[in-house]
Design a protein that fits this description.
Elements: H1 2-7, H2 9-13, E1 21-24, H3 33-36, E2 45-48, H4 52-62, H5 70-78, H6 85-97, H7 106-123, E3 128-133, H8 140-153, E4 158-162, H9 165-175, E5 186-188, E6 200-205, H10 222-226, H11 231-238, E7 239-246, H12 260-269, E8 273-278, H13 279-282, H14 289-298, E9 316-319, H15 323-335, E10 340-344, E11 363-365, E12 368-370, E13 399-400, H16 402-405, E14 410-417, E15 421-424, E16 427-430, H17 448-463, E17 466-474, H18 477-485
Parallel strand pairs: 1-2, 3-7, 3-8, 4-5, 4-6, 6-7, 9-17, 10-13, 10-14, 14-17
Antiparallel strand pairs: 11-12, 15-16
Length: 488
């Protein structure tokens, strides 16, 4: 009911005697005794099959046989679907009051730059998209949320979306902490398959490098599947001004198409202008740009080849012999109240928790073993759900992967480079047989060149999560020696 009122303009902007009920037609009272113990209200009455007569009475009380509801039903079905002004006011207050979203120094300049670009796009005589590119630490998230808060304050209909379950669920938890209604403003890229063109004023597309070829999945209805378009086309259509925030070196799965070039290609085909902002060229909000440049050269993602780490007073890089040594370094930061996580390439099996709730230590390196983060949406054995691994303190002690680390930053990063990427003589070699990611198994869908590119991008993501330090361990002795040779 809350969702309907907040996102159906007809219900939000007019007075209606809106009531709600759940009819569990094949349940008895005994089956759902815990649900029945909750007090009923106009927002949600509960009826079981055992109480069918009471449900009929409820319907009789609220449906008038002398006044058919055809007109009301037509108005409901034809209503515009967008956040209500009341919800936008709540969202603006919630986002702008969260201290983790407060803009600092260069972030303020970048935010103003993006906000002005969005304003210019709104005033343009033709539809315009804004593409904001930036690497780790360029402040894309805090800028995106600040722009969202300001547009909400102005009464513009705006929604935030990503292609990452971990990222979206974390934002829902943080931004909607005090008012759960705000969670509905954080959606997924595949939420706009059936959206009417320009239904929203603004659509902020965070982590846009996660855009897929299509929004279709196994749960998609046949009618929607038959008329499906490329996902980037759906996103360009859904809002008057779509805003894409991306890092082109974070494409890590086959089928991800979120590059500035791909967005511009689709935009040109549909007569949409594009305004581009590169945060890396103008702003730096955290971490070390020297280190990001060093990683890109190290992995062959930028020209020049690997070079020795020259050092940066604000960022520490260490290569260690064992994962145990890496974990001890991270534990020290964790005890001091800093955020610290260890992550690895997907090179080990990934088991479900045992029946007693304990996690299986699948990541085994010599005599050291730790479990992966959980895969599911529920906490087990004290470990947080998959989506909250990077943000919940209880995530320390499990090994994360690129899908749970991407989009997040923490003070101290530990990275295990697995046997799927090794240094041999003068070049990197991607070893497909050592990788266990099911998305990479098909040689038809992912050829050797794509696998090599995607694996390098995976390690680029993992190596650039830390804002103060990174501790690196490679399971391959030759690779470890090469990395150590680059350290001062």
């Amino acid at each position: 009911m809350d969702y309907l009122k907040d996102f159906t303009v007809m219900l939000a902007e007019r007075d209606h005697s809106l009531v709600g009920a759940a009819y569990l037609h094949n349940a008895t009272d005994r089956d759902v005794v815990d649900l029945l113990s909750r007090p009923g209200s106009a927002r949600g009455r509960l009826f079981t099959g055992q109480r069918r007569g009471a449900f009929v009475d409820f319907l009789t009380d609220h449906l008038d046989p002398d006044h058919p509801g055809d007109a009301a039903a037509d108005a409901l079905l034809a209503s515009k679907i967008a956040p209500s002004r009341q919800l936008l006011t709540v969202a603006a207050d919630e986002v702008q009051r969260r201290e983790m979203f407060v803009l600092l120094d260069e972030q303020r300049d970048a935010y103003e730059h993006v906000l002005h670009a969005v304003g210019r796009a709104r005033r343009s005589s033709t539809k315009t998209a804004v593409v904001v590119s930036g690497g780790p630490g360029s402040g894309k998230l805090v800028i995106a949320l600040s722009v969202m808060g300001e547009l909400s304050r102005q009464g513009r209909t705006v929604v935030h979306a990503t292609g990452s379950r971990s990222f979206t669920q974390t934002l829902r938890k943080i931004a909607g902490h005090r008012d759960p209604r705000v969670k509905g403003l954080f959606k997924y890229f595949n939420s706009f398959m059936t959206a009417e063109p320009n239904d929203l004023d603004r659509l902020i597309l965070d982590e846009a490098h996660r855009i897929r070829e299509t929004s279709v999945n196994r749960y998609t209805r046949k009618a929607d599947r038959d008329r499906a378009r490329p996902q980037v086309e759906e996103l360009l259509s859904a809002a008057r001004v779509p805003v894409f925030l991306l890092d082109q070196h974070q494409v890590v799965r086959p089928g991800e198409l979120g590059t500035a070039q791909e967005i511009e290609r689709f935009a040109a085909a549909h007569g949409v202008d594009v305004e581009h902002i590169d945060l890396d060229d103008q702003f730096r909000c955290g971490g070390s740009q020297l280190y990001v440049d060093w990683v890109e050269r190290l992995l062959g993602l930028a020209a020049g080849g690997p070079v020795a780490w020259a050092g940066d007073p604000s960022f520490e890089v260490t290569v260690v012999e064992t994962p145990g040594e890496m974990e001890r370094v991270l534990e020290e930061g964790h005890r001091e109240g800093r955020t610290a996580r260890m992550a690895a390439g997907y090179c080990w099996p990934w088991s479900d928790p045992r029946a007693d709730g304990s996690l299986v230590p699948d990541v085994v390196i010599g005599g050291w073993a730790r479990p992966w983060n959980l895969r599911g949406d529920r906490s087990v054995g004290g470990a947080p759900p998959s989506a909250l691994w990077a943000s919940d303190p209880a995530g320390f002690g499990q090994v994360g992967c690129v899908y749970t680390a991407q989009g997040f930053e923490y003070d101290h990063a530990g990275v295990i480079i697995g046997p799927d990427l090794v240094w041999r003589e003068d070049r990197w070699v991607a070893v497909r047989e050592a990788n266990r990611d099911p998305d990479f198994k098909s040689r038809t869908a992912v050829d050797a060149a794509d696998f090599d590119r995607l694996v390098r991008n995976v390690y680029k993501v993992l190596l650039t999560r830390g804002m103060r330090s990174v501790t690196i361990h490679s399971t391959d002795p030759g690779t470890r020696d090469f990395l150590k040779s680059l350290m001062p």
